[in-house]
Amino acid sequence: MQCLVELIDRWKGERLTLLPPDSEFAIRETFDSLGSTATPDVIALYTSLGGMQEMDKELWRLWPLTEIKSENAMASSSGVLFSDYLINCWCYRLKANLNGTSAVLVDHFDGAEPVQVASSLEEFLSLYLIDATRLLDRAASD
Description:
- The mean pLDDT is 93.
- The chain has five helices and five strands, in the order H-H-H-E-H-E-E-E-E-H.
- It has helices at residues 2-13, 24-33, 40-46, 65-71, 121-141; strands at residues 60-62, 80-85, 90-96, 102-107, 115-118.
């Protein structure tokens, strides 16, 4: 995912504390323990970047695997929580697709079902790279 390489460079330029990549085994084990599947795009993400210690300038943060485990105490058919906007104003979920990718959904925790914002993790990261504000603002209105 070229967009991920560019985002990592951007975040390094912001002087964010990026966590070291995880092993494929740890990623699979985490998602398996949550009743989900770590698809190849999820594995590519977490073997490149283990999460973020703080929010980026767009106020979005990718969670490390330890936080994914703690924030997903209850399994959900809507996918696995993996990131948040503005300290949990809303969160994003990864839900495995049949084609070996993971869709990204926004969850506002308002009683409504989470809404898909990207058909794949790569699409989500590409949209984020191109115009994070537009992607996040769209999530606010979904």
